[in-house]
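Mods, move this if it's the wrong board.
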Amino acid sequence: MSETEKTEKVTMKESELTTLIENEAGKVAEKKLSEFMEKSLEDRLKTLNEENQGLMDEEIQKALAKIKPDHELEKATEEADKFSEPVEFLDAVVDFKTRKKFDPRLRFVDNSGNIIKVAGHMEEGEDSQGGFLVPEVFRADLQMIALENSIVRPNGATIIPPIKTDSLKIPYVDDTSHATTVFGGVQASWTAEAAAKDLTKPKFGQMELTPHKLAGITYLSHELRDDSAIALVPLIKRMFGSAWGYFEDDAFINGNGVGQPLGILNCNCLKVVNRNTLLRVMIEDLAEMYACMLPGSHDYGVWVINPGVIPELLEMGSGNAADASGKILVFTKDVQGKPRWEIWGRPVFFSEKMPTLGTQGDIGFFDMRYYFIFDRQPITIDFSSHVAFTTDEDCWRFVLRVAGQCWPAQTITPRNAAAPVTTQSPFVVLGAATS
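Not the wrong board. Structure tokens:
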């Protein structure tokens, strides 16, 4: 081979090497540019998120600033708290209603939740639907008993304390679709240097919480009252606490919003997932429900299930094997082992308040943080020895006023919506129909 041929061959290899280096450098540069652009968009969206969260907080603070604190209720609560123990409070109520013996620590609340007079100035014609403000310690004790039978309150519901207003309006970001925007209208787009930016802003809505009255009564014989005053306290606590918790919780789940709170199963943002097989619950159903939960709610959601679904869960297996023929059971290995009632790391609660097996809502996956509870009137207790005079029984009544409602206003459409996740929500239930 001549020297000229050798030079040409070497030159060609160097040229290929140079081209290769240039190509690789271009790929590296392209990758770095892509990473930079992604980081820039992420930072911009984060800034928008913080700005709009700030707007949201500002709107909420403006709304709450317009509401005057209930100073009368605060003062009355302080006075009522001076009872040393629950039995002392109950005895004071009985003494006033039977012997007109006034105890200045008693505070009477009318049927609108207003403190209208102290015991020393009460008349026989006081509002028949009112009652005596339960001391905070006793009320907390009653609430604790109620929570043991409740699902919504103790699992993260947003609780708004008593405020002196007949209804409460709360602003919120009206976010329904992420197809082109977020926060109900905020959009980030790529723009050239020094180019005009698109002006976007979030869309706000307003939710109104209107309190409704929950009342209950129970009867105690004179013998029980007279033989042991101490026994009266646990009995009242058990009856009122359990009744309060049960019926309030039932409304938070099933209420139609007419004269009662609007329950989760009737809210506009409820996401219904069609089941795989009629009258059955399959692991595919649970997987689709989990996928339709808002991504930010996966670590907060709880499963609420009708007890009639338990056999379906105990016999549930993975894989496509037929029933009782080689399925790998999900919740238990054998009848000697105790089931671990969790679904993908989140707790399971069984409640008869949920619809029966095969109907819509027999299984729910809920993020209770999105359920708002407005405690307008604290629980009050009243007493009468005349209602059941012929049977020698005393009548005790409790009354409270409370509002409940879900947020957001409707389900949210994700940016890349496709079956089975066409919409998402913090409240997801299994439907009655099949796909």
